[in-house]
Amino acid sequence: xxxxxxxxxxxEQLKSQVSDLIGEHGLTLTSLPMILSLYRAPLQHLRTKVxxxxxxxxxxxxxxxxxxxxxxxSGWYYYQELLQLTRAASYQTTPDLKPLYxxxxxxxxxxEQRHHTFLAYCIRGDNHLDTYYFTREYHGEDLxxxxxxxxxxxxxxxxxxxxxxLKEHIQQKLTSNRTxxxxxxxxxxxxxxKKTDLIELLFALQCSGSINGGQATVKQIARQLExxxxxxLGNYYHILGKIRARKxxxxxxxxxxxxxxxxLETMDL
Length: 269
Prior knowledge:
By secondary structure, this protein is mostly helical. It has eleven helices and no strands.
């Protein structure tokens, strides 16, 4: 199998594994290290393979270091930086994370400015310097880099792609925080039950038609529940599929009914 096909297969497998993990656990301080661990073996395997792989044409080597490897490696960089950002957020003494996010955005902008010429070349879709940027024959003077596995510029491009993902994540967080601050008083509540139970409740509320006259979407309700209970629900449609597959789908709703009935029967009115 050619290396290009091999790395594309690795990426598809990894994408599926990461999606399943996020769907189950969301993006948390617990799940992010698990995601990074999924990347380690494929990246190390790829490194070993490249050491002995004879690229058949220069165009193949360029495609590998310009397109395939940066795409794969950007995932590692993204989740690595997201873990650092999430960890920093956990130490904040106030619920307002905008200063932290702004600081990260400034850092990413500074990185882009330092590598402006090269990144502009990539963004424009130029190719006249591909042999210089994306083959290993011109980059043997740096003693730190492993030049059997990198040209140096593939790493810069991968980091930039990761930053694009992180900027999107931060903008979503800032938008969500603005929406939630308008709709909620800062919540001191934390969901301590199973995430699956809250997702079951989420869909039950949406199906009931009791919010905004039945016009509220699942996504809108999910955002409010996340803000209210300080939790990330992740891919709730993925979890919904698992709920539907259960012998008794509405386990949590049934339990709520039971607990409420028992409470009402024993209350002194």
